């Protein structure tokens, strides 16, 4: 599609360009690249809360028992497997959701201890909280009076 | 140029990922609304347009400092124009693990009917 076609109706073309750009900004993925440009892995957000690291995955459609979390060293792996809602009849008009299974690993900073991680899953959002190692926490050093 | 109603709540609004399956009996629609609870979903059918809206509670993000982000957190909004073959009175909705499932049955007249040939 030609974005610029100023020869015919310049005002209308500019309005259309503005619309296109507005849509691109509203779309969280920016300019839509079509199905091939989309990720097939659940997106992740990583936060810091006090000294801990909080990792959030968007996994809508996965029940808590369909998810598994594993840590090895500083690597945290989240995988999910769900029974596909197979359509024995009918036809899909749209299919945008991730189906089947996924596995995703992320590397955590050394200051946190994945062995102590705790996870909760609510309304399709998986939250893993990885606490800071004791030695990474700030420590008050008492000044001894002499 | 078409004009859209403006959003009256500050913050970003996202289009949910959607699957739509059509069967002989009707349509089934799944919309991904991660982070939205039952009380914060609004499903409306006005003038043949099905509107889904989900509000995400963002207060728990207040004390989180982002280090790396791949997805934005915000409300969900989607609109679908339905054909008049859908029976608006019998639409059913449920929410499971952040996915809104809608059953949209067709009106009886729109279902395929097999006509027997008399011998």
What does this structure look like?
- The complex is a heterodimer of chains A (146) and B (119).
- Chain A has 146 residues and is mainly beta.
- In chain A, a hairpin with a 2-residue loop joins strand 3 and strand 4.
- Chain A is built from 1 helix and 8 strands; from the N terminus they run αββββββββ.
- In chain A, the strands form 2 sheets. In chain A, strands 1-2-8-7 form a 4-stranded antiparallel sheet, with no helix packed on it. A 3-stranded antiparallel sheet of chain A has the order 3-4-6, with no helix packed on it.
- Chain A has a domain at 39-84 and 98-137: Immunoglobulin-like, CATH 2.60.40.
- Chain B has a domain at 15-57 and 75-108: Sandwich (Immunoglobulin-like).
- Chain B contains no helices and 9 strands.
- Chain B is elongated and about 75 Å long.
- Classes of the chains: A mainly beta (146), B mainly beta (119).
- Chain A binds chain B through residues 15, 19, 26-28, 43-49, 53-54, 58-63, 85, 87, 89-97, 121-125, and chain B through 1, 12-15, 17-24, 27-28, 30, 32-37, 61, 63-73, 95-99.
Q: What's the pLDDT, averaged over the residues of chain A?
A: 81
* Alpha carbon gap, first and last residue of chain B: 58 Å
Over all CA atoms, what is the radius of gyration of chain A? 23 Å
Q: Tell me the Rg of chain B in angstroms.
A: 18 Å
- Total number of strands of chain B: 9
Summed over residues and divided by their number, the pLDDT of chain B gives a mean of: 86
CATH architecture of the domain at 39-84 and 98-137 in chain A: Sandwich
- Beta fraction of chain A: 25-35%
Largest sheet strand order of chain B:
1-7-5-4
| Helical/strand content category of chain A | mainly beta
| Helix/sheet category of chain B | mainly beta
Largest interface: A-B, 36 and 39 residues
The 3D shape of chain B can be described as elongated
